[in-house]
Amino acid sequence: MPENFRSVSAVWVGLVCLLFYSRLVRVGAAPICTNGQAGCHILSLADLFDRVIQHSARMHGISSDLHSEFEQYFFPSKNHIGRVNRICHTSTILTPNGKENAQRLAREELTEVILKLLVAWRDPLWHFQQSIAHHHDFNNFSSNKALEMSDMVHELRKGVEKVAEKMQMLGIISNSVNSLTSPEALIPSDRAEWRLMKDYVLLYCFRRDSNKVQNYLKILKCRIIPQHEC
Amino acid sequence: VVVYLNLHSFLFFHVLSLCLGYSPPGKPKLTSCRSPEKETFTCWWEPGSDGGLPTTYALYYRKENSDAVYECPDYHTAGENSCFFNKNDTSIWVNYNITVVATNALGSNFSDPVDVDVVYIVQPHTPENVTVTVMEDKDGPFLRVSWEPPRKADTRSGWITLIYELRVKLEGEEEWEEHRAGQQKMFNIFSLRSGGMYLVQVRCKPDHGFWSEWSSTTYIKVPDYFPRETSVWILIAVFSAFIFFILTWILNLKSNSVKHCLLPPVPGPKIKGFDKQLLKNGRSEEVFSALVVPGFPPTTSSDCEDLLVEYLEVYTPEEQELILEEGKDLQEGCLKSKGSPSDSDSGRGSCDSHTLLMEKCGEGEGKEEKHQERAQKGKRQQKHQTGWEEGDVSHTREDVLSPDMSEGRVKTWPSVFSPLPQYSSRPLDHQGSLETARHGLQLPGFRSTEYVEVQRVNQEDMVILQPLFSSSCQRDGHLQIGQGEDYSKVKGVDSGNMLLLQREVEVKREEEDGDRYSCDIQDRVTESCYTTSTAASSQVTGKPTSCAGTAMPVQEEMVLAANGYVDAATMLL
């Protein structure tokens, strides 16, 4: 009797293991490569766009969280917020503030605007994160978010540059976008402006600008690849 | 004068109004601003008290970082107490500072300003064209719900990204079942109840904004069908019942071993003749009387083999140590082993041993088994022989076979006694060298012991003896009976209750036997001569051959053991 049980249970265990193994084997992921090597899944422009859009969405989410935390912490009364004069350092950058305006812009221009915005925020966010880290008022959660935000701007800029490269490669846009890489060219005005911004205003401005970036990217994508989720 | 009159009428009017209970308007309040598609937006306000006088409301706004104040361009499109901003007036990512003013004849009142950024106040309209269809699948029917985004929301250009949510419930239920559909415009609902009526609603929301209202309810009826799940469950039930039966059957088969494993049997008392029932019911006398087993203790020698165990040990005081020693050896074995020839007692009562002598060699051969086995006998013979070679002890048996031995064991051998004296006495008579006193069962002391082993006692109270081989033939060839290493084989017992001993034995196995050979022959001759007749004993000393002749015919019938042992039992006549 014990021998019967042992053999039966061994058979069951074997079957279960076989099932699991077959399932695992079946689910295989295709390798991703960028150079078109044989057997790779080449990243398409649509994939690149999806990635940067996701990235920008996350960035905007973090900035919204931080902004509302700030608002709660420092400005409990809503009306008080209204009286603060918010001047963002990126207001010098001309950005379309409507759908028609955005659609009227050429692809290259739109890409340029996106890159300008991303470049303009790299330094301020880095300094903001530094000041938050040293401030004992903020908890670890906030400082982690600030750090992540600052990293994301950097990553997103690189991602958008890659997209622009790909578009240029595909002939979708002209080659004029390359000149945007140097930050000095983008912000000719006094860089000290943003140092004067208070943290709260900075967050307010960045929340808006990250939304702009996300929206512009979506517009760009649906203009270039309309069939893909538009 | 005109100015004075105007002022006067104004004041008069005011005073009159106040006397009549009129007051300036209460403070209006901006309730909400919403944009359905992120291109236009509407603000609503709540008027305060009007103070009894007709009150007008105006909305003013300022754009971010600009001091210019603008009034609401459209008060009517969105209804009462609203302000509609059209596309031209709407700027996204721009902060609007909006205020509403209520004005009546007596005064005006400003509302609290509100900051609005259109991006964050988007609340789309409900999704449109919600269609639900019943589709078939191999697993059964399911609902396919599809819809379209609200007309005004421009998702095609990527300006707005909407995510959808739908909810379903059965008619009559209270709880809705909600599902997130992401950005897709289609959704499948499975696990439907056969024949049920379902209600479906859909709504949407931009990625940063407010949920729209639920769409109007769509009703759908699911046709009747047999759910596959039930059949699967039936299959599973049948299968498990089958397995269960098989297991039960196996368990039944092996119930004993399982029972043994789980409930090991508790050893209970096993008293022969003990009746538990009787004990429960009854009186102790009955119980105990039941324990009395007839035939116990055995009074008759029904199994005479057991009796072989009992024998009387006789020894002389100086040999007490040896006796003791042997006694110990003997006690090691079971009862039966006592009768083994290795015991000190063995050989008592044999026809050819004149004395009941103890094996002085004292080997620990108590462990040897039943003397019935010939192979063992051979061994014993060997041992005896070796033992004797080591040292012969002359035993002088002077003691009577009496049970009251001071040391050692006393064993009785009742039935054996009677035939023995016959045998014992004869060699003594004829052997002049035999000097020591003999007693009933005793043979005079010799230098070496001579043994005959009693195999068993048969029904007629006859002792069946087996002589033991003498190992050493280092004697001087004395034909005295009782020189211990000599063994004879009992050929048989003749009608005159005489033991016929064999003359020749072919010992093939051991080399030692060769030595014995001649001795044995002689002994045998001697013995055979004894047994045949008393008269023949005179022939013993000198004439083996003659005796051989008598012994011969019988010899062939002997059942020989390789070592020369005879199972005299077989030769009973």
- Number of β-strand runs of chain B: 19
Spans of chain B of at least 5 consecutive residues whose pLDDT stays below 50 are 322-446, 470-484, 505-566, 568-573
Strand order of the largest sheet of chain A: 1-2
Overall mean pLDDT of chain A: 80
Q: Percent of residues of chain B in beta strands?
A: 15-25%
Measured as a percent range, the helix fraction of chain A is 55-70%
Sheet having the most strands of chain B: 5 strands, antiparallel
Percent helix of chain B:
25-40%
Oligomeric grouping of the chains: heterodimer
Distance between the termini of chain A: 66 Å
Major β-sheet annotation of chain A: 2 strands, parallel
Task: State Rg of chain A.
Answer: 24 Å
Signal peptide (chain B): 1-21
Domain Fibronectin type-III (chain B): 24-124, 126-225
Subcellular location (chain B): Membrane
Region (Disordered) (chain B): 333-393
Keywords:
heterodimer, A: 230 residues, mainly alpha, two-stranded parallel sheet, 9 helices, B: 573 residues, alpha+beta, Immunoglobulin-like, five-stranded antiparallel sheet, four-stranded antiparallel sheet, 13 helices, 19 strands, rod-shaped, disordered C terminus
